[in-house]
């Protein structure tokens, strides 16, 4: 049995993102936080791994180094604002699904 938690927030701010990430931190079950820009464009994390996708499954990437939860939070905040800090600063590896 798995539990899925879905929170829909239109135009999340930094506090919304911090609160949502806090809800998955330290969970032992499969809990993910996802921020979508479109049907197939999103960033997601389980609090440890950080991934993003642009367009379709071929354009799926994951962070290639361990990140702190604070770094993951900063990446989501940057993604939500629409700036490219997250994309230019974090090392990504291609992982088509």
Residue runs with pLDDT of under 50 for 5 or more positions: none
Biggest sheet, spatial arrangement of strands: 1-2-3-4-5
User: How many helices in DSSP terms?
Assistant: 3
* Strand tally: 5
Shape estimate: globular
Termini gap: 24 Å
Question: Helicity level, as a percent range?
Answer: 25-40%
Structural class call reads alpha+beta
Whole-number average pLDDT?
Answer: 86
| Major sheet characteristics | 5 strands, antiparallel
Task: Give a brief outline of the structure.
The chain is α+β, with helices and mostly antiparallel strands.
Question: Can you give a write-up of this model?
Answer:
The protein has 97 residues and is of the alpha+beta class. The protein has one domain (14-94). The chain has three helices and five strands. The chain has helices at residues 14-24, 69-81, 85-89, and strands at residues 33-38, 41-45, 50-53, 60-63, 92-94. The chain has a five-stranded antiparallel sheet with strand order 1-2-3-4-5. Strand 1 (33-38) and strand 2 (41-45) form a beta hairpin. The longest helix has 13 residues, at 69-81. The radius of gyration is 13 Å and the shape is globular. 16% of the residues are buried. The model has no long low-confidence stretch (mean pLDDT 86).
